[in-house]
Request: fold
Amino acid sequence: MVSSRHEAMHRIFRHDPGVFARAFRALDLPFPEPRAVDLLPTDLTEIVPLEHRVDSLLRIDTGEGAYLLLVEAQSQDDPDKPAAWAYYVAHAHSKYRLPVVLLVVCHDKVTALWAARPAPLGLPLWPSLTVQPMVLGPHNVPVVTDSDSAAEDIPLATLSAVAHAKDPRIGDVLKALATALRDVDDEEDRTILAELTELGLGTTAAATTWRQLMTVDLSFFRSETSQRLRAQGVASSILRILERRGITVPEAARDRITACADPAMLDTWLDRAVDAATIDDVFGTES
Reply:
């Protein structure tokens, strides 16, 4: 099931793919800085009736050539995932004829260490393919507790907040990020990062701390731009949940969801989408 927290982890990379290269430089892996980035279709399904959909697929052009960044958010161990990841990597490489980097982002260290283990596919004495993703999680994402450092790279500071939601230092991480965000001139950029932080923190205690910090200066959250972006984000989550659960969404219903500007109604539909059997269950008595 797709969750808001799950969504936030890979949407950070869509917002600023360069954060991937900067995060791994701390591990002495010199990925070149992106010059141009294109968001590619995430549907990797072939003719056979089996759905394969990756969270985010980005084409990154650098001074040293182009490559694909395939981003997956993982919240727990899943023995079926390595085979799916192998499919994603092989199919993306075959389709686009570019090197593929598989990145898995995790909320907790246990899941991150599980995801980082090589997964051989084939016979024990002769594996045909070995999947070994690069992994970002609490074990290797920097803990950014200084506001000046956060201001230098706010997307990385946002990833730090999400990855370390249960770290004892999370209060300092959030304070540093909140301070840095208030100095961002671009209102839309500032709002998106603040929203992604809230989504990424999910239902942790840190989410309450973040909302309390934001009450100090809510001017940009009350703006028309913020309300529009929040509504778009919730509508997108509703549609994605329904899609993942195999529920048919007619065009009229899709338009109704994406056009809705009532936050309370969108939240109600989001809650219903988790258990709905049909699109009518989502709309309920408002149908």
About this structure: Confidence is low (pLDDT under 50) at residues 46-51.
